[in-house]
Each structure stands twice: as C-alpha cells, then as structure tokens.
C-alpha cells in the first residue's frame, strides 16, 4: 500500500505493514507535504506499474515500482487532488491528469506538459478528476469541480467538463465541489450519468450525458481512486469466479475423537450451467504437505444456483496436537482454480 504523509514522504508498505521503501520530497513549512493519495498504472506501457504522486507547492512525480523517480515536473499550488490516469486522446498512451491549485494539468508518459486548464485565480481544484468518453468520440473528457478555499460555500463555484485537449466544453455554477465527481450508468439505460456533491446547500446533483454510453472501457477513471474499491490502480477490475465456495466450521477447537463439522456453500455466479470439480485438503501441524480429504468430485450447478451441504470428519485418536489448515477448492483442474476458502482449526488434548 502507498501512504502519503505530512512528513514529506510517500511510504510503501507490504501487507503486514512493513515499509518496503519511502520517497522524500524536499520543502519547508507546508511545501513538500504529500497530502493527496497517489495513482498507479502502467503509464509507460512497459508492463510495469508506475506511481503518480504530488507534493504540496512543489512537484508532480512519476516513480517506478521501487520508488525511484522517473521524472519530476515543478508546480506551485495546493496539491490536494489525487491524480487520474487515462488515455485521454485515444492514441494508446496513458496520460496523467491532476488538479494543482487552480489548474487542471495533463502530462504525457514522459512528463511533458500537454495542456493546462485554469478554473480561475483564487480557486482550487481539490478533488480527483473523473475521466470518461461522454460523447462517444473515442477521447476522454475530464469532469472536475473547484472550490473557494476562503469561502467554501460560495454558490458561484463551478463543475466543469474539459476536453481531451484542455478546452472547456461545459460548466455550471453549483457551489463549491470538494469531492470527486462520479461517472457511471447508474440506471442501466445505456447513457452515462455524472454525479457531483457540493458544499453550497449540501446538494447532490445527477446529470445525464446527451450521448449513448460508449464501450465501458472508455470510462477509464470513473471516480476518486478509479473504482468503487478505491484502489487508485488504472486498469483494475474485480474478476468474479464462475463458482464460489464458502466454508463455515461449527467449531475450530476439537479433541481427538471429536467430529469436525463444516457447512459448505457453492454459488454459481453466472447465467450459465457450470460443471466443475470440488475438493478439500488439510495441512497438518508442522507439515508443509497437504493431504486430500474429499474428492475431487465433479459437480454441476444450473445458472445462479446455490448448493448447500455439510461435511463431517472424525478427528483421529492419534491426531497430533496443534493447528490444522482446512481448504476447499473449486475449478476445472489443479492449474485452473476458480475459487477457494480455508480456515484453521486446533486439536487440543
């Protein structure tokens, strides 16, 4: 995970919270503070992740996955808006678009500034832009809002739609816009809606774009941090297993001779029949090898079906004490596992 900090560092931590690397931005006072969260994606089309990050009143950076800077572009202004990544001109490159002070700025993968769009002196873009092809021309528009930091409820502040070349396409006075706009087809009518919340009157607006929804791939950055899980990762998608398995043990502390009872749920997440293999294995204490317990069994579920059942296993009288790992798998082969679930149970005297 990537964590920006007021200590002017961007920290990269592993899943256990250990620091892998950190990147420092110089400055004094509020200059150099890393206030906004970064974005990540294969910006340079080299099959590696790059990280776009900003520092307050200082610079926008592109870092490699090890935290080494690839380029730096100096800026001056509040850097509270998180960057967005997308192919705004439809030419195959991924650009970085970010609000910096009163400017929306687009950079190419090498760091060159493509264009700037100014919302007006004295106003700030403090939220991440959304990027989507609103008119079906194969190019992305940026949807942003601005705010008056001294008068955040100023009703004259605007939401904007900016073209892929940095030109104003639309604006409307809504009041200060502190949060990122969201673009999605929320009512499944084939047209995109734009959702914007404001400070003035605490009003939430929903606008409908005047065009038929293009292919979904052209909603490249639909909200703050890209997606509903707020990964900040360009190209991120949640892939759903055709069949999911869930295990719920009745008890996780047993003695030799007891019965381990496990409720099993198999769910077909598709609109098609699914034939698959189901198996369970167990790993004994201090033994890296797994032992087969059930199956593999060939099962078939009709579309969107849910199958429930219970497995029962008697704990052998000679079972060693310690922690056991029980795991269930579904898929078509050991090399094609669709889903799995596991739990730990303990054998005590």
Enumerate how many helices there are, as a single number.
Answer: 0
CATH topology of the largest domain: Methylamine Dehydrogenase, Chain H
What is the class of the largest domain in the CATH system? Mainly Beta
Radius of gyration (Å): 26 Å
> Can you say what the CATH homologous superfamily of the largest domain is?
Integrin alpha, N-terminal
Helix content class: under 10%
Walk me through what this model shows.
- This is CARDB domain-containing protein.
- It is a single-pass membrane protein.
- InterPro entries: FAM234, Integrin_alpha_N, WD40/YVTN_repeat-like_dom_sf.
- It comes from candidate division TA06 bacterium DG_24.
- By secondary structure, the chain is mainly beta.
- The chain folds into two domains: 233 residues, Methylamine Dehydrogenase, Chain H (7 Propeller); 105 residues, Immunoglobulin-like, CATH 2.60.40.10.
- The chain contains no helices and 26 strands.
- The two termini are 41 Å apart.
- The model has no long low-confidence stretch (mean pLDDT 89).
Question: What's the SSE blueprint?
Answer:
Elements: E1 2-4, E2 9-13, E3 19-24, E4 39-41, E5 50-55, E6 59-64, E7 69-74, E8 84-86, E9 95-100, E10 103-107, E11 113-118, E12 130-132, E13 141-145, E14 158-162, E15 168-173, E16 182-184, E17 191-197, E18 204-212, E19 243-249, E20 253-254, E21 259-268, E22 274-283, E23 290-301, E24 306-314, E25 322-333, E26 336-347
Parallel strand pairs: 20-26
Antiparallel strand pairs: 1-2, 2-3, 4-5, 5-6, 6-7, 8-9, 9-10, 10-11, 12-13, 13-14, 14-15, 16-17, 17-18, 19-21, 21-24, 22-23, 22-25, 25-26
Organism: candidate division TA06 bacterium DG_24
Protein name: CARDB domain-containing protein
Membrane topology: Single-pass membrane protein
């Amino acid at each position: 995970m990537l964590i920006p900090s007021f200590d002017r560092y961007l920290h990269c931590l592993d899943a256990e919270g250990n620091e892998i690397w950190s990147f420092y931005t110089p400055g004094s006072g509020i200059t150099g503070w890393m206030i906004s969260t970064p974005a990540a994606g294969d910006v340079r089309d080299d099959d590696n992740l790059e990280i776009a990050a900003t520092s307050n009143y200082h610079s926008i950076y592109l870092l490699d996955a090890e935290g080494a800077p690839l380029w730096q572009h100096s800026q001056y202004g509040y850097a509270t808006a998180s960057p967005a990544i997308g192919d705004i001109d439809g030419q195959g490159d991924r650009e970085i678009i970010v609000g910096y002070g009163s400017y929306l700025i687009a950079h190419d993968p090498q760091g060159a500034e493509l264009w700037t769009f100014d919302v007006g002196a004295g106003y700030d873009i403090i939220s991440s832009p959304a990027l989507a092809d609103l008119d079906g021309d194969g190019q992305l528009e940026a949807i942003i809002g601005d705010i008056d930091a001294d008068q955040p409820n100023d009703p004259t502040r605007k939401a904007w739609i900016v073209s892929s070349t940095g030109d104003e396409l639309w604006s409307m006075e809504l009041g200060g816009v502190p949060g990122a706009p969201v673009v999605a087809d929320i009512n499944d009518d084939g047209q995109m809606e734009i959702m914007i919340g404001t400070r003035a009157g605490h009003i939430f607006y929903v606008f409908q774009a005047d065009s038929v929804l293009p292919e979904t791939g052209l909603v490249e950055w639909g909200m703050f941090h890209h997606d509903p899980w707020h990964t900040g990762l360009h190209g991120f998608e949640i892939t759903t297993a055709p069949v999911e398995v869930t295990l719920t043990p009745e008890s996780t502390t047993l003695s030799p001779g007891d019965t381990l009872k496990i409720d099993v749920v198999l769910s077909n997440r598709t609109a098609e029949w699914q034939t698959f293999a189901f198996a369970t294995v167990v790993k004994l204490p201090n033994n890296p090898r797994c032992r087969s317990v059930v199956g593999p069994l060939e099962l078939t579920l009709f579309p969107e079906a849910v199958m429930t059942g219970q497995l029962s296993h008697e704990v052998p009288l000679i079972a060693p004490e310690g922690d056991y790992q029980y795991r269930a798998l579904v898929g078509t082969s050991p090399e094609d596992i669709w889903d799995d679930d596991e739990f730990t149970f303990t054998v005590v005297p």
